[in-house]
C-alpha cells in the first residue's frame, strides 16, 4: 500500500510539472487538487492516529524499551562476527575486515609500545678521599 501511495504521489508530481511546463492554466484542476489534499491529508493522519491508539489499547502503555538479544555472532548477511567487544570499547579506531564468511573487528590503533628507559650512562667513579687529600 505504501508503495502505491508513493508511486501515485510521483505520478501527480510529474503530471503537475508537465502542466506547468506546457503553460496551460487549469484552475478547475488546481481546485480539485486543493480539495483532495484537504480531505486526504487529514484522513491519512487520522487513520495513523487511530492505528496507534489501537496498539495502545491492545498492549497498554509502554513501560520500557523493547528487550533485544545482544548476541551479535552473525551479521544480517550471515557472516560470522569475530570481535572482542570489551577490548574494542576503548578503541579510537576500529578496523573491520571482511573475509568472505567472517567479519573481524580489530583495534586499528597500534598497541602502545612498552615505555623505553634510556640506558644509564656509565657511572663515573667518585674519587676516593685519600686521592684528593694526599698522603698524611
TrEMBL record:
Give the Low complexity compositional bias ranges: 110-123
Which keywords fit this entry according to its UniProt record?
Membrane, Transmembrane, Transmembrane helix
Basic and acidic residues compositional bias: what residue ranges?
127-136
Span-the-membrane segments of this chain are 33-55
Specify where the region named Disordered lies, as residue ranges.
Answer: 102-136
- The name under which this protein is listed is Uncharacterized protein
State the organism of origin. Answer: Rubrivivax gelatinosus (strain NBRC 100245 / IL144)
